[in-house]
Amino acid sequence: MKKLRLALGQLNMTVGDIEGNTEKIISAIKEAKLHECDIIAFPELAITGYPPEDLLLKPSFINRNLQALNRIAQASENIITIVGFVDKVEDIYNAAAVLLNGKIVAVYHKNFLPNYGVFDEVRYFQRGNEITLLNIEGYKIGLSICEDIWYPENPINIQAIEGAELIININASPYHIGKGKFREDMLKVRARDNLVSIAYVNLVGGQDELVFDGNSIIVGPDGSVLTKGRSFEEEIVLCDINLDAIFRQQLKDNRLRNLRAMYKREEKVKEIHLDFKIKDKLETIPQKTILDRPEIEEIYKALVTGVRDYIHKNGFEKVVIGLSGGIDSSLTATIATDALGKDNVKGVLMPSQFTSKESVEDALELAENLGIETFTLPITDIFEKYKDELKDIFAGLKPDATEENLQARIRGNLLMALSNKFGWIVLATGNKSEMSVGYATLYGDMVGGFAVLKDVLKTKVYELAQYRNSISPVIPQRVLEKPPSAELKPDQRDEDELLPYPILDEIIMLYVEEDMPVQDIIRMGFDRHSVEKVVKMIDRNEYKRRQAPIGIRITHRAFGKDRRMPVTNKFREL
Questions:
Q1: Pair (22, 155) in one structural domain
Q2: What is the reported pTM?
Q3: Structural domain total, the chain
Q4: pLDDT by residue (tens digit) across 423-432?
Q5: Which of 3, 13, 94, 169 has the fewest CB atoms lying closer than 10 Å?
Q6: What is the pLDDT of residues 155-171, one digit of tens each?
Q7: How buried is 359 (Cβ within 10 angstroms: 0-12 exposed, 13-18 middle, 19+ buried)?
Q8: CA distance 279 to 134
Q9: Which residue out of 3, 24, 37, 110 is catalytically annotated?
Q10: SS3 of 357, please?
Q11: Residue 30: CB partners within 8 Å, gap ≥ 6?
Q12: How far apart are CA 79 and CA 283, in angstroms?
């Protein structure tokens, strides 16, 4: 009985850090050797990090990645190593290299290039047109890359017909809510349909607005989960795969036999025979059970990962956050503290004459619960000075949003002053509901280097805060209960100026995330006036969103890479 020991290197790579990524890969290879692994596979474009975007237009970047590949090959003695890299032939390809005993023994080029949502691979890569099989002692293993496995008719079908028992699919599949289950269900279908075991290794960690969740998985030919990596954590996932058992299952099922009878081998199929002997193992790797996280826990973990990696990978240590005593700044500060540690988070209270005593108390209580340092910089005198300087120009005009925005911009100036002086990066605290309808001030509460809650609707903000408090109660209960307010004028309430957040968020989800026509939203039972009000606000605030800091993507339709609307745009559904 042949058992192939497979390792999946679920690693957190950094785009452009070719040297650092290479060191991680080599370290993981050494660890896999200690476990007597036969094969170790790493994520898509593991050497360069994903997505490298326009770095791919730099020949020096491509050449350095090729040099790194040769260095990794030197570490592949007596272990088959599969690693994602950028190949250069007459063009460049998103590729997987097979390394063994210091040599590059095979290269597979990704056949299907995604060019939707956050993906732009057609911009950079040539599409591959060959299908690769590795032959090890008569057993066949198919290679594929990410998008290749998402199509019903894909390289996996041909590899199975050609006799593959195992498919290794390397990935950089970014997280969004529900993606993990959707991905796992798809892999189970592919495995059952093709009577093969599938090993799916995924990237983990944050890269700008994207977060990769890991969740690497190995599925048996019956769709059963053999093992699974943890979400949002680096690890080497190990599994023993019984290749003989898979072959026996294939013999008992007529589907492959019937397909083979009709199949005419194409020239594009490349079968590479490897001079490699599968190691005899005295002990079997025990199967482990990884329980899926509840959705709200997964979202919270994604946000923590996104903050941690954006700050650390960009060379920052500390962040500064304006603490208003509201739910958004409280959750942002909590996530930042969980991601970076209490000593690396600074809170700034900037009360005005409209700030309630309760808001100051809540902000201070939050800071005490988190253990973060705070500073108090009142803005009332500065605000009065601004108004005094403008009084002649504004003579005869009533106060309006201008005066409200002045306060927000004073606060933004103070936060940026601290950022400049001490090198702290400002975390913006606005949420997706506000950004959708433009309920935010340019150069005011929108300032910052990173927006933690940019893709989190207000109703989800409350859910996340309640979830975090279930672990340890750090956000004051009053923050969860009081009506949200910008506190820029007397008795101001967000929902008086917008809509109740549950209704507002439903309309935003339908219009922004699902691209549903306005009339269809109204037919679902929403008040026409409310729908039209929200849609008009969304449409006219594209210019504002374009100037907002980037933030963590947690939905399938986030502002930025996913939803790209022209700022200058006369089309309206209304």
A1: yes
A2: 0.94
A3: 2
A4: 999 999 999 9
A5: 3
A6: 999 999 999 999 999 99
A7: buried
A8: 17
A9: 110
A10: helix
A11: 75
A12: 18
